[in-house]
Amino acid sequence: MEKINETTALRNSIILLKAKQAEELQLLKAQMHLTYETLKPLNLIKNTFKQAVASPDIKNGLVNNAIGLATGYLSKKVLVGATHNPFKKILGAIIEFSVASYVAKRADNFKPADEEDDQAK
After folding, report:
1. pLDDT for position 121
2. Cα gap 30→36, rounded to integer Å
3. CA–CA distance, 59 with 91 (Å, rounded to integer)
4. Does position 2 have pLDDT exceeding 60, yes or no?
5. How far apart are CA 49 and CA 120, in angstroms?
6. DSSP structure string for the chain
7. Can you say how many angstroms the Cα of residue 53 is from the centroid of all Cα atoms in its chain?
8. Is the pLDDT of residue 83 over 50?
9. Angle at which helices 56-79 and 86-105 pack, to 10 degrees?
10. Position 108 pLDDT exceeds 60
11. C-alpha pair distances (Å), 52 with each of 38, 106, 116
12. Could you read off the pLDDT of 46-60 as tens digits, one per residue?
């Protein structure tokens, strides 16, 4: 009689293992699909952009650089203007990049006081 009980227990174990295997296969397929979607180039770019926008340090750096570039461009236009002289064009480019670099590095000093108070909190 023990053979029948052992055989039945073995069959039940096989059935349970097959069910477990089928469930794990479904989970593996779902994970593979998720990984495939995540690794698509467009999704990689979207995720990277979302992370970059969410980071306060990167936001601050982008704002500082934008302020620097705008200031550099305006200083070039004010000091050199529209000219066809190659020497003045080179001088204007040097002024533009110098001012842009200087302002971008020190843009925190140019922000209004209420923004500085918000950042300190």
Report:
1. 47
2. 10
3. 31
4. no
5. 26
6. -HHHHHHHHHHHHHHHHHHHHHHHHHHHHHHHHHHHHHTSHHHHHHHHHHHHHH-HHHHHHHHHHHHHHHHHHHHHHHHT-S---HHHHHHHHHHHHHHHHHHHHTHHHHS-HHHHHHHH-
7. 6
8. yes
9. 150
10. yes
11. 17, 22, 22
12. 888 888 777 777 777
> Stretch 8-15: mean pLDDT, rounded?
93
Report which residue type is found at 46. K
Q: Is the pLDDT of residue 118 over 80?
A: no
Tokens of 62: 């982008």
- Side chain identity, residue 25: L
Tell me how far apart the 2 most distant CA atoms of the chain are, in Å.
Answer: 108
How far apart CA 89 and CA 95 sit, in angstroms, is: 10
- Token pair, residue 45, equals 């770019």
Residue with tokens 């794990």: 24
